[in-house]
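Incident log, support desk, overnight shift.

02:14 A customer reports that sequence design results differ from what the structure should imply. Their input is reproduced verbatim below. On-call engineer (initials T.W.) acknowledged and began investigating.
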């Protein structure tokens, strides 16, 4: 059973740890450097993801009896957490980061977490067979980087991640998968606690430390709940942000012109004159609508399967 402590505890841990991480960041120099695009001034920590990660891990250790797949999720997310932390502290090359994402995906496969079957609407299923590892690597790297790309405005990434986690919590409860439901509750609580400090104007940024770990966890949990396709709807904003970058790069290489004023997508609306708060709140609303749509589709498919 899920009770309030499983979401309240990570929330409280995150609320307590985030100011401590902020102070430590300033002490050790792990704060965002100002440049011509900077809208924040002063020393803003860029490793706030440490608080999210610790709140998540501590809650998991207390409430979840880890099976093989849960261990894989924790190890994979931890690999991405440390990858992001190193990147935020000393900067690592994109190729190194991608290599570590592939390693994390291979770890998931070792622990039995892989995209073996792609489940589409109307009961259509595609067996990936012996190339399931390729789909798993693409899925994990894709979702991880999509969450990373959306982390560009105060409260945007952590807010959308919270909505996705709460929706996937409902999916897990619907299927009776309690370990996954508790995991989702832990993730949601940790994110919401951090959002208190990350809302505009942000006192702290999650950085790659948080976004890469969050992306890995959400991508992994979609595989564990066998909802990869539905997750693309629930996390539709992640998909849109990633596509906006790919489209922009491809179109510019071909024509030397830009489709969007700036990519990822949230910066396009900033360039159109929307305030940061307006972009974030409207993106939260869109995320909520997409999450409700995805869950409704999954619920309908579940009812059809039972009937």
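02:41 Re-run completed on a clean worker. Output:
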């Amino acid at each position: 059973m899920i009770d309030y402590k499983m979401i309240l505890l990570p929330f409280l841990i995150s609320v307590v740890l985030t100011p401590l991480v902020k102070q430590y960041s300033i002490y050790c120099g792990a704060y965002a450097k100002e440049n011509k695009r900077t809208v924040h001034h002063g020393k803003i920590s860029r490793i706030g993801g440490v608080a999210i990660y610790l709140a998540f891990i501590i809650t998991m250790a207390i409430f979840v009896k880890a099976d093989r797949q849960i261990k894989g999720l924790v190890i994979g997310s931890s690999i991405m957490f440390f990858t992001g932390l190193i990147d935020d502290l000393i900067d690592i090359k994109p190729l190194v980061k991608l290599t570590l994402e592939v390693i994390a995906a291979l770890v998931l496969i070792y622990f039995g977490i892989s995209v073996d079957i792609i489940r589409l609407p109307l009961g259509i299923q595609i067996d990936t067979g012996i190339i399931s590892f390729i789909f798993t690597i693409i899925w994990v790297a894709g979702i991880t980087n999509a969450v990373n790309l959306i982390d560009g405005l105060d409260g945007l990434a952590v807010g959308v991640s919270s909505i996705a986690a709460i929706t996937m919590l409902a999916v897990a409860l619907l299927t009776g998968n309690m370990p996954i439901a508790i995991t989702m509750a832990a993730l949601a609580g940790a994110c919401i606690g951090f959002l208190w400090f990350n809302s505009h104007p942000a006192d702290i940024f999650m950085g790659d430390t948080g976004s890469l770990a969050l992306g890995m966890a959400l991508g992994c949990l979609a595989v564990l709940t066998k909802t990869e396709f539905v997750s693309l709807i629930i996390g539709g904003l992640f998909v849109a942000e990633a596509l906006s970058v790919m489209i922009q790069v491809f179109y510019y290489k071909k024509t030397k012109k830009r489709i969007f004023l700036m990519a990822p997508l949230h910066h396009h609306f900033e360039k159109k004159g929307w305030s940061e708060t307006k972009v974030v709140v409207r993106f939260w609303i869109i995320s909520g609508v997409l999450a409700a749509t995805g869950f409704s589709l999954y619920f309908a498919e579940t009812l059809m399967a039972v009937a």
